[in-house]
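Run log, item B.
One chain of 269 residues. Sequence copied directly from the ordering sheet:
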Amino acid sequence: MPDIIKFLKNKSMELYKETLLLHKRAPSTRIASALSTIDLFSVLAYGGFFDITNKKDRFIISKAHGCFSLYPILAEKGIISKNDLEQIGREGALLGTIPDCNVPGIINNGGALANGLGIACGMALAMKLKGKPDNICVFQGDGECNEGSVWEAVIFAAFHKLDNLLLIIDDNKMSMLGRQKEILGLDPLSEKFRVFGWNSYDVDGHNVNELYPMLEKIVQERLNKPKVLVASTVKGKRISSLENNCLCHIISMSSEEIDNALAEIGDSL
């Protein structure tokens, strides 16, 4: 395991760098939201037990505004081109600031928040009825849990015993309007899912040493219950001006700030 952990940590650092470069080219991207996803995406994409490019498994992005960090992964895996990364956000470009299903490897539009889990539930039920072994994973932000449609889907998944469904919550404890605890106060999230009949797990969403064995354990788990992984993360991770800043959701970094951040990351690679 030490070799794979080291590999995944390196991939995470590379993905931080590539995500910052994308933000430099397209300043309207939500960089703080993307930075909390990176370690999770790195382990999902390169850990060897889940296909996030939708060639085999089904990966639904509900927190779409924070998922442009998937673009470098799609490019490395040959789903899109490196040139597509250079053109992000430009008129006529394949890649918008929010991923949509026009992009190869992306199978849902996610501009409207809190719809991803409902979509995933439909897919998971269809796969079970067809007797197919496909895994369905949905990536969701904690702020989306403020929406009633999420909890309707939670009840649906438990009732139908969708144990081929994994929900990953990017629990960075902030949404566009401020801190979650000051908006609706849904903590403890894990306990709420358990009450609704899910198998619920907590993890440090930036600790690869925890993420890898946890995902290895639960992705293939089949215990007649849907699964949720509540990943504690930091919005704006690795950028001191963004971390714990309630307005970071709408902040764009300057070219100088990005260059400084890239230099720091380069020193650690």
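Observations after the first pass:
- The mean pLDDT is 93.
- The radius of gyration is 18 Å.
Flagged for discussion on Thursday.
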